[in-house]
Automatic annotation (TrEMBL):
It comes from the Eukaryota. It holds the Pfam family 7tm_4. It is found in: Cell membrane. This is Olfactory receptor. The lineage of its organism: Eukaryota, Metazoa, Chordata, Craniata, Vertebrata. Its main location: membrane. InterPro entries: GPCR_Rhodpsn, GPCR_Rhodpsn_7TM, Olfact_rcpt, Olfactory_Receptors. It is a multi-pass membrane protein.
Length: 311
């Protein structure tokens, strides 16, 4: 098949074609993106300044916050600007880079959430061996594995798309470049490519989700052997993890565990895992995590106290 590309840019339809709705969305999503940046930066600063890196859970939480910032930044700034723009265009190269970024950071987040579940499993079910199993060297290797896994997944997705010919039309019924909407524009049969894309994304999403469900089920069952105080602390930590998993994996499963088709609801579903989840993550982890809350209070209390003394 000879590749012929007459398309140099794509045009987004965006979230809505109603100007009043777009203006409201501009204010709302600008606020959401600000919360994403400030909330996740607060967690990263708290982990760094509170010297929590030595604890594996906070080591991975720090990188989860970093990935959340990167993940939302791939789509949110462009979407927010486009809400007030008359022409919502993106270059072909920009579209491929955005597609790569969405799948790279999205897949990396999935793997980090899976590693965090394993960390909780070891901490609760094998507490005596926790420091041996989750030492710094192993944590670094697992973190590296999440980045490599995300890269391999996303490079496969992009490689499948860039070899397709695009002859027009070039309008994407979405607010960012994702695989399924872009495949619809290819001027060739994309059935095989669609199957491979679904197998690639679906295997990772479903496989990780099943592993997470099994891990937390084992954790919850094992809590029966713990004291009431131990159960309370473990449930508080695991509860925040489970909440994040459900909010993130629910929409992802809807989007990627299906054949190469698109629905009108896809854009709103995508908002959940590209914007809502990165925004809720820091809120969930700070509100339900005593260690993070205490560290934030201690750091800010120390800062306020020192400023008062300076005056």
């Amino acid at each position: 098949m000879e590749k012929r590309n007459n398309v140099t840019e794509f045009i987004f339809w965006g979230l809505s074609q109603n100007l009043e709705v777009e203006e409201v969305c501009f204010v709302v999503f600008s606020f959401f993106y600000t919360v994403i940046l400030l909330g996740n930066l607060l967690i990263m600063l708290t982990v760094y300044m509170g010297n929590l890196f030595k604890f594996p859970m906070y080591f991975f939480l720090n990188y989860l916050s970093f990935v959340d910032i990167c993940y939302s930044s791939v789509t949110a700034p462009k979407m927010i600007v486009d809400l007030l723009a008359k022409s919502k265009t993106i270059s072909y190269v920009g579209c491929m880079l955005q597609l790569f970024g969405v799948h790279f950071f999205g897949c990396t987040e999935i793997f980090i959430l899976t590693v965090m579940a394993y960390d909780r499993y070891v901490a609760i079910c094998k507490p005596l061996h926790y420091t041996t199993i989750m030492d710094r060297n192993r944590c670094n290797k697992m973190l590296l594995g999440t980045w490599i896994g995300g890269f391999l997944h996303s490079i496969i997705q992009v490689a499948l798309v860039v070899q397709l010919p695009f002859c027009g039309p070039s309008e994407i019924d979405h607010y960012f470049c994702d695989v399924h909407p872009v495949l619809k524009l290819a001027c060739t049969d994309t059935y095989i490519v669609g199957v491979v894309v679904t197998a690639n994304s679906g295997t990772i999403a479903l496989g990780s989700f099943v592993i997470l469900i099994i891990s937390y089920t084992v954790i919850l069952v094992s809590l029966r052997k713990h004291s009431a105080e131990g159960r309370r602390k473990a449930l508080s930590t695991c509860g925040s993890h489970i909440a994040v998993v459900i909010i993130f994996f629910g929409p992802c499963t809807f989007m990627y565990m299906r054949p190469d088709t698109t629905f009108s609801e896809d854009k709103m579903v995508a908002v959940f895992y590209t914007i809502i989840t990165p925004m809720l993550n820091p809120l969930i982890y700070t509100l339900r995590n005593a260690e993070i809350k205490n560290t934030i209070k201690r750091l800010w209390g120390r800062k306020v106290f020192s400023e008062a003394n300076d005056k």
